[in-house]
Fold these 4 entries.
Entry 1:
Amino acid sequence: MVLALALFSLFFGAGNLILPPQLGFRSGASWWLAGLGFSISAVLIPMLGILAHARLQGSMFDFGKKVSPAFSLLYCYLIYAISIALPAPRTASVTHEMGIAPFFGTSSLWTSLVYFALVYLLVVNRSKIIPLIGKYLTPIILVVMLMMIGSVIWGSPGSPGVPMMEYPMSEGILEGYQTFDAIGAVVVGGVVLISMNLEYPGLNTHERFLHLSRAGWMAGLGLLLLYAGLIFSGALLQEEFAGDSSRTEVLRIMSTWALGYRGNIFLSVLIGLACFTTAVGIITGASDFMKSRFGNSTTIYRATAFIGCLLGVLMGQLPVDYIIAVALPPLMFIYPLTIVMILLNALPDHWSPPGLFRMVVIATLLFSVPDFLGSIGIPLMADWLEAWWPLQTYQMGWVLPALIVFAAYHLVRRFR
């Protein structure tokens, strides 16, 4: 139970709160399809990532070692670069749009400057205040969110309307990418293992596997129920939102409808604090990684923290929806790769030997390129692939090649 609550709090961030309500609003009567897709990429895959960590009993670096140590190191650099450049600044933007702009009207530049100045101070001083706040903050936000969901479900006079999206399930999967939770599973699983070893040194490898895997599924069930409630609530209040409402606007309108003006202020403050703890965690993790790669240098640690906070100031003053749009191209490239490595590492070793691992990763990378190019406005081969390649229409053309390579490898090995 302790591990499950810890995992839930690590995955449960403010960014996760702003995505499901708008997904429900846009999916309308098809909310359950969108919710199913969202749950695959934002719950199932991350929990399989925790299961993979339980099997590996290692760090993020171990996820890609079967391809090669150089590939694994490059993957780690890429993950941390994306983390400090996109989800960390998004926390400042969410804080501004939810907790500052509606009540004070100050500029987003001032918000991001003050926000990341405080982040830098706490990162370089390794304050214990943030873990303490995070320990009590998540349960409070969770209780408030459950109150809001319950108020909408039992008090809404309406019903889900006409969907505004063509492919609810695939759009739900792609929206789940924006939670960064699959990447989060790869990053935080190793941290949880280290903490568990320190807290419970008497556990053997099998016991650690059982405790961590069971805790992962318990945390996943909690996330699933929360996401389903938020998506359904967004669908029920569809008529309350304008057609072009942003993600933060949908959540703010929903919370005001359910909790009243004062309740909305309270929720906004809590979300701002949750964002802040997330930003400190991301910058600290990236700084620790760079420090470990360069001889445990404190100068490298501080320089990484400064660069991360500077990027936060530059990106954090942009609207949340713009940051999400900017994040789409790198996610279209790195997320399929992350999903495949999670799935392969979750399997027993005889099902994912190094040769197969390399072949599936290469196939996934190759067939992720069209989706990546399409996301930056270069529809190279897009029309041709959509005409004959299954799932390419849904921006998931990499799935079938990965499955074919996996199946073909095992068929050849069996009948050879």
Note: Residues 347-416 form one domain.
Entry 2:
Amino acid sequence: MPLTSGTRLGPYEIASLLGAGGMGEVYRARDTKLGRDVALKILPESFTHDPERVVRFRREAQVLASLNHPHIAQIHGLDDANGIQFLALELVDGESLDKRIARGAIPIDEALAIARQLAEGLEAAHEKGIIHRDLKPANIALTAGGQVKVLDFGLAKATEAAAAPSLALVNSPTITSPVMMTGLGVVLGTAAYMAPEQARGVAVDKRADIWAFGCVFYEMLTGRKAFDGETLTDTVVAILKNEPDWQALPSGTPLRIQSLIARCLRKDPAQRLHDIADGRFQIEEVSNDPGSSAAVAATARNYREWAAWIAAALFLVTTLVFTGLFLASRRSTTTSSGDRISFAVSPPEKTAFASRVNTTVNVPSFAVSPDGHTLVFSAETPGARPTLWMRSMDNAYAGQLAGTEDAQDPFWSPDNRWVGFFADGTLRKIPAAGGAAQVITQVTTDFRGATWGADDTILFASAVQPIQSVNAAGGPTKSVTVIDSSRQEGTHRFPHFLPDGRHFLYSVLAASPDQSGVYIGSLDDNTKKRLVHVNSNAVYAPPGYLLFVDGDTLLGQAFDADRLELKGQPFLVAEHVGRTTAYQSAVSASQTGTIAYAGPIAQTGRLTWLDRNGNLLGSAGNTDGDYPDFRLSSDGTHLAAALVDPKTNVVDIWITELARGSWSRIAGGALNAAPVWSPDGTRLVFRSNRNGNVGLYERSTAGGGIDRLLLSLETIRAARLGQNIIPTDWSPDGRQLICSAPTLGSGNDLWLLPIGKEATPVRFIASPAEEIHGNFAPNGHLVAYTSNESGRYEVYVETFPRSDRKWPVSTTGGYEPRWRADGREIYYLSEDRKLMAVQVNVGPSFGIPKALFQTRVPAGVTPNRTHYVASRDGLRFLVNTATDAVTPRITVVLNWTKTPKK
């Protein structure tokens, strides 16, 4: 029974009822001893006989007593009187945040102030190891002075089973997920703000609070819930399956805030913002930036009006509506109703998307046709070379395009009749309907994108040359940009024609970050104008947008193609989109409102120890991640590994002492890869683009000191090499490195780099084929390597220095050879990714390859990645075992500028 005004509980006199929740009633009361008003939370009498509820009630008191923060309501005491147990709490004068939101969406500047204080309160609690589990607007109070107070901290509320939850229950203090309604367990929290893992009833950590923080932030800005439904089940389904309506965010919402909310609301906790302090820092930076105030909001409102006009015009354009993708029957769709529709494209059965070459990040290679009807992509089956596949948007079936072996970076002709691509050191084209592929011109294997103009002019790029042009029928090439060394420009890459067919976008990478970005060039004059200061390329998407990836966020921005000017502010299109380490955005756009993007971007694996039978022995660390390269020191005690940061695509190099398991970063802040140990283990050589251009560096493995430049971009260019130079081994005498690198006009060759100050690389093994994965025998007199001179990749051994003696080692395809420390055995990966062993006898002579075990390394032969290393005795193997957690996919969006279809 509710307490009446005037009732005394010890020194407290009840004034009025403030509210009631799942764990008790809250009253306004007067502390007669100290002369102050307080809030009393009363444990209901019906609960006092339940030991579990009493324990939870007392636990809240202990939790609150451990917290002392201006943004968390304080506890004054825990007491009982007249058989009633209660908490005396700080009384917060003001209104709850849910009542404030009920009056309408909160202006951006005010919402930022509230979110910052809310983050500070959560940060203080999380530092104490405390999670809220029921964060929502009703548990957040706003004082008259604008101060935020978080209420009900640490409360673990009980739930009563119910046959049919009402809408009120959906927004009540505590509910259960559908599976828990049977009494199997209890889910604590409020449905609309529960993280997916919380809704499933599994254990939660502070990331559940971060999810709820994102829900609250979104609701403040939009005036509506991020996830809502008419019933409890509808709400939980929305949390588990749906995305918030991102277009509901006010047009003036700063881009970094959009990104922050999206990171808070990632369904996989591993991909979610990990620490609320990082969110607070971002809010503070935006709040202190004058560009995020009312001026930006006004500009954004103008943009929204303009964009709305464009959207209305686009409504008249008809496209294909994709329906019934997952039905067994193949039913063609009719023309589009204008709704925004998105769907995922997976590779054909028993294939995997082939990664873009010359990159350490697993990003599919694909392109949408200009009419938006067809997607072309590169895929491969185990043991086979990648080829192009074509898929209509109204059919789940994809067909292989014959004659496109090793094809990469496809692009379309403007009339949809041809597909261009790179393969085997050439630029080629093939009819989209099928037919013979035709060579257009020779190119370096270190290519960087192409685009096809309306007058059959094709622009293409490599890592070391300006943007080149060539006619689609073939003929001479010429440069259409000039690399400006006075501005420390390194490369021009990823050209993309604009609608007039004379101007084009392209990316500049420079040693000075101030000079890097997306530029406009022209076929007619020396136009050179920077549009976007990002390390990625951009594509044009009608009726007037640029799309580009910043970090792992796909952004759009209005663009006037006549004036060649950006308009308004960037806006969020999609999260967790791929960008290669060559800074190529994994996005493509048609001329009809269809776009496609690829993600997730990580090639996730775990460095796993296996014995010769493939039995699991353990792992080197317990972190799954994208490990492009890793090598054991010569004595087998230490490991050097390159690890991709999934948020930034930065690649750091880490060293660990295997016996202790502690990791230390030895190179970071750039794209670092291919660590190679010196024979004595005291030094490490690696490649890095820390100055905007690739170079090879040497440093002490003891830590500290100054990195020594072994090979600069200038020397690479002088030797006519591509920038994709990969050190793979250090000679046993310590005098030289063996590297693979593309030779201009040819494929990858093996090169020797003497260990000296700015030494010049010397070609070791070269042919029209690909030579990669060079490894010295322990005696220094033999070299094992991979070549596709026979038409498929095989492992060979040659003498060092080179003579006329050469031995095939693999017999049915193989790559990535490694030697046992005594030189008596060679290991390699077969085409179907088995780990093979070959005995090495005197002479030398080589035994019959023997399969040791099936690996789960990522598919594909590439010079850029290490998939395994062997222990000195050959009894254990450290294998980059692919996990099932992240599988790249291509997402297609029809009518992408429209409001998402409900």
Note: The chain is about 15% helix and 35% strand.
Entry 3:
Amino acid sequence: MRESIEPPLSLYVHLPWCISKCPYCDFNSHTAGNSAPKERYLKAVKIDLKLEAQRAAGRSLMSVFIGGGTPNFFSNSEIEQLIDLIAGEFSLQPDIEITMEVNPGTVEHGCMRNYATAGVNRLSLGAQSFNVESLRKLGRIHGPNEIYSSYEKAMAAGFDSINLDIMFALPGQNIDMAFRDVEQLVALEPAHISYYQLTLEPNTVFHNNPPADIPNGEESFIIQQQCHALMAANGYEQYEISAFAKFGFRCRHNLNYWTFGDYLAAGAGAHGKFTDNEGKIWRYTKPRHPLSYIEQVERRCIDNMEREVPIADIGFEFMLNALRLPEGFTASDYISRTGLSLDPLREGLELAQAKGMIEPIDRSGWRPTAFGLRFLNDLTAIFLV
């Protein structure tokens, strides 16, 4: 019997333009410079948000994430308008987390205070590396000085919840270089760190023309182990495969993804997941290209490409997210987020445990082992039926 469920609800807003496209990036980002129809796009997003508020039907938002692209490609006043509209159209929880991504290479003087005044209470800075040559190879438009300057401006504006993105296994990077990156990172003492390995994603420049000097698998694993240990020694807890936080500063928005919560989507290419009143789970995606998105919104005829998630797929989708968490999940977590019995997963759980990839938690749940986290794709594949 399927139970009626109502998971926590978040909102993602996508602002798609960048000054330049990085060769490793597979996000829905576009370069348009001064020709980007920002005003027209923002009007479309406002209409889209009103439609998404109808979908929410009074359910309150626990978090908002403004991502891109480069959201600070838009002006301070445009960001403020966006947040004001969200506050006016949606019910917001009193302690709502509102995150905005910021590119260190495009931070204007005084904008950090404006973001805080507008309601942003968490920033995510795309640092990627502190090494000048690594940043050049990654196609970033900023240098180490811009990282430090952006971080200092954010701190001066009163932000205490700041994430820094850092990548490893970069072209030409050795173990010492990667370790030095993390040394410089933890010296800043950000509240949160996203630390992830460079991957060659399809439809990227790096995928079509792979750099010859990327560290091999063994070198990458050594980098990962040593740098994880350095972050742990400096007070950062790993609570997701690529996320580290000081106490009290876990990213609530991303945790809602990983624990199979619901999230609304506005903006070109944005993805959403929603549970209806009957307990059915739906996924949907907005038109990917900004102009197609704008035109469809203006006609009030958006092809959201909605699809119901088949019951047979829900268990795998839950596990695909939950197994990213070192703390794992409990049976009650699974039941409360899916409305389903855990029974169909038990064979996979027994097999994964026999392979040493998960371990039980006090008879009420399971968590991935270090071995399981290292070979996460193989672990999740066990539950793909």
Note: DSSP finds 15 helices and 17 strands in the chain.
Entry 4:
Amino acid sequence: MSATIRRVHTLHVLPSLPEGLEQLREIALDLHWTWNFDAIDLFRRLDHILWREVGHNPMRLLAEISQERLQEAAEDEGFLSHLERVRRDFQSYREERTWYQATFNNHENLKVIYLSAEFGLHECLPVYSGGLGLLAGDHLKAASDLGVPMVGMGLFYQHGYFHQYLNADGWQQELYPEVEIPSEPMVLVRGEDGTPLEISVQVGPREVKLHIWKVIVGRVDLYLLDTNVLSNHPEDRGITDTLYGGDTEKRIQQEIVLGIGGYRALQALGIEGSIFHMNEGHSAFIALERIRQLMAEHNLTFEEAREATRAGHVFTTHTPVPAGIDRFGLELMDRYFQEFWPTLGLGRDQFLALGGANAKKEDSSFNMATLAIGLSAFTNGVSKLHGMVSRKMWRELWPDLPEDEVPIRSVTNGIHARSWISPEMSLLLERYLGPNWQENPLDRQMWRGVREISTEELWRTRVRLRERLITFARHRLRWQLTRRGESITDVELGGEVLDMNTLTIGFARRFATYKRASLLFADKDRLIRLLTDPDRPIQLILAGKAHPKDDPGKNIIREIIHFARDERLRNRIVFLEDYDINVARYMVQGCDLWLNTPRRPYEASGTSGMKAAVNGVLHCSTLDGWWSEAYDREIGWAIGGGEEYEDFDYQDRVESETLYDLLEEEIVPLFYTRDRARVAREWTEMIKRMLEKVCPVFFTTRMVSEYAQEAYIPNHERVETLREEDFKRAKNLTAWKKRIRKAWGEIKVLEVKTHGEFELRVGDRVPVEATVQLGSLKPEDVQVEVFLGRMAGDRELKAGKGLRMELAGQKDGTATYKAEIVCEESGHQGFALRVLPQHEDLTNPLDLGLVTWE
């Protein structure tokens, strides 16, 4: 009878790197290798089979490779030369002069802290689920490339996001395997005494200890917080166990750790940020912690500390619907913050109001986006359309402003091209555009060079990428069928699916119902005819996960699996399980057409189409997210004309018919129209036009440079100004706002005079004079504008812009203002007078929501 072993002490034994290979571990720990093809080839060269088996994780590769193979590599002059080349490339990357240094060399003390609940950097670090995390990962990589001084802050999830597999019926199942920490490309941050650096944060009734993991992303460091500390209560150790797992209480705990714990971690690390960029509202509690500490350290009031910190807060919302925003009930807020709000000098009602909650209504909730917007100087959506949607969503916060003037901007997302482009396409672009084809974020002139790319060469590149995708899909399907317990015959047949020469359509994204993965399957008979056409067939590769609690999304996957079992379609439809960065990379590189069918306007951005575009994959989508601003008929296809419907069933019928029409009448014929060399010349010419238009705009180099120029640098300058002389200007601004709010009701537009003719022509000038009652306020406290725009009805201005009026005189609490309207456009137009607050330290005169209209 064997003894029961009650406790096992684990030892993680790494191979000893022979002399000459010591740099391998350093390279493996810097995720710059994830967008350096030569570094990836270096690790693959060690053992290409093991490289695939360890999920392209160089740390696992070095942990599992044999000592004998390492010794062989140490004696291989070719390998050593390759290693030295990669080492020099990494060193050069870190030392070269960057775009940021060349553009903002007088802002060396800027430090941007980028906070996100997830970061999608590579498949080997599973702390991401989808688009939000991939955008965050690409943001850090672009900041590294451009040299923007940035630090990332997130959470380390012991089980990451779930792994997906389908049962025999096609129903999604979830697995949560534990991440093997020693094999991850990160290191535990330790103090001077060698012990783990530990911080603490109050989470409800208990103090929770946090450890910090460091991930190197080129020139940027990312820190991940971990509550799995032995000294913590067992429940608290699980706070950071899964991404988007658990209930609402788990979510508020994670967000306290990310926001409040994140700020304390930065202090423990000795990192002083000046700009704090909140990627979605998950980290918004950091704003409260910064206010609390500033009040305690500098004896400021809540409002003074709010002004001093608000200038340094940037908030990016990714949510196009109210239901997608984190909200916490009052009972939860009481449980977790009843000891916090007194430290802000606030009562319960005042504190809850920061999140838009009404303390008198039990069913009210605390809105994290409302909190972030109210405490940020710069708020933006992630596409032009999403900016419009966001202004409509949050108009209630500025009820006296026209919707177009709600102070929420848009910075359209982009993708980190080198992380997503295939080596073949990258070499092609280097050959025709030069080696630095993505270094300058604004160089549209350079991209005209794609017109010179050989059509035959581009087509052959696209054929090779399709063939690689199909080979990958076959291997993946065989693995899926084997794991599912299918027969040997079915497994072997899985290795024969798809055709190397058939138009391949990709659809890969989260299976939320609004993304409408089922749209292409709306008319099954019509789809079958397209799939089985003997001369011009199509084939489909699909991938994506439904949220574990989203049964309607899971059912869409199940219906697709059942449909694909039709004997006529077995070789034409493949669903790839467990969608991750690796699967995405093959798909965006290898498909011929990228299909996106969200119900407008619910797709905030949709960056997968951008990843496909840089690889020469044409796009077909509803006019939502990024495609609504990128599309023209010369570079791809639009499903509909941007209509929005109240009847969703009717919308699905109309748009599915439109999709089938596009496939039958335009897309399929264009793909199969070949010249004598069997090249789809017009298809390939469309790819060139798409590359020229899309690439200069929809890269993260453009996106991050836009954030730097419009948010980071201006706000950093304001932060420094407000902190001068013991926060003198922050205090003055606070006092001014208090005075303005108290006296604003005294303002009235008494009289407006104009001398223009009723019928005018373009170029005519119309003088306007206004008399405004200021009461106890002074002319320097306000700005008076003519708000000019097009008329939407008899008395309604649809949209417009403000023309500032000049002060002409003042007497006894009134002031006279004059301006001259220039008629620049024809049509039915109108204007109205309005008065706005004015102060040199006010970020935007519209922020206060104080407007007096004529």
Note: The chain has 29 helices and 28 strands.
